[in-house]
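Hi there,

I know you've been waiting on this one. I reran it after we fixed the sequence typo, so this is the corrected version. Both the input and the resulting structure follow.
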Amino acid sequence: MQWAIQTEHLTKIYGGHVIAVNDMSLQVPAGAIYGLLGPNGAGKTTTLRLLLGLQRPTAGRALVFGQPCGVNATGVRRMIGFLATHPTLPGHLRPIEYLDLLGRICRLSNDVRQPRLASLLRAVGLLDATDQRIETFSTGMRTRLGIAASLMADPPLLLWDEPTAGLDPAARRFTLDLIRDLGKNRTIVIATHILADIDQICDHVGVMHEGRMIFSGPMREMKRRLRHDDFRL
């Protein structure tokens, strides 16, 4: 089996005493829609930042498609499309201008860049908002534009942090349907604290608690354990 993500004893400690990620060994199969589930503060965002090379691990290592992650691993970052929670976007630009800028940064030629940004705006339902400045966008519109931005370089791996946070029911349904569709030809990792989202779209799941990975495996295996385990309070 090919692994999109592998971590070995991955650890991140802040200030010598705050353990954000604790000895994580994780394997995400290529082509999976993987839900990284846990409450706020469990270490999900830190894990994504370590995979992106935005932070150095205190110990251990992480691989993306067999290549080591790190602050200088530009080749790894080219394979990743990242969506932050409530993404901060340049409000003075319009959607086309913003995506075109990203395409230029990614060194996409004009004949690739222009059709792609148009198809992405159509895919995320923002064609009617191309004349609006981003600063006028609602939370849901900003999330959809952030999704389009994460896809601009056509990466094989998507890391999305709380993509449904703050969305109304219609926008949440749109986002979940889009994830399901995108998962047909790429690997997606969704970090969230919403179990219902994981249940609807993910085929693999990892559960984090206080920086530790307490379960990782197929969704059907977690459901099997939940059906057979008894809890008495």
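Quick highlight: Helices lie at 44-52, 74-77, 95-105, 110-123, 139-151, 169-182, 195-201, 219-228.

Best,
R. S.
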